[in-house]
Amino acid sequence: MSQLHNPTDTEQLLLIDYIVHHQKSNGSTRPKVFKWKTLKINPHCTVTFTKPHSFKPITTRKYYPGEHRFTLQINGKATAYASTTLIP
Predict the structure, then answer these.
(1) Which domain CATH number covers 79?
(2) C-beta separation of 18 from 72 below 8 A
(3) How far apart are CA 84 and CA 72, in angstroms?
């Protein structure tokens, strides 16, 4: 869950993406940017939102055990970080 607050007196237009740094078979990571949403926040308002991300096996990507990091990117700037560990 993430919260964004607009402390200014003007409406803010935000482009929100998230990046998953996928674990590769050789132990390194590879970032993949996922487009999420465009959001307008009114002056002095707070917005709360969540975004689930599935690690279900798919034909175009193989998931390897290990740490997978997440980066929240707002208007092209990294603003928050989290990680999870996949176990075999």
Answers:
(1) 2.60.40.10
(2) yes
(3) 14
Q: d(Cα 37, Cα 57) in Å, to the nearest integer?
A: 24
Asked if residue 36 lies in contact with residue 50, where contact means CB atoms within 8 angstroms, the answer is: no
- Is pLDDT at 19 greater than 90 in this prediction? yes
- pLDDT value at position 45? 95
What was the pLDDT predicted at 1?
A: 76
The alpha carbon dihedral of 51, 57, 59, 60 has a sign of: positive
Name the token pair of 21: 């740094």
* Calpha distance 70→81 (Å, rounded): 6
Q: Nearest-CA neighbor of 66 among 35, 24, 31, 3?
A: 24
Count, residues in the chain: 88
Q: Which domain holds residue 48?
A: 2-86
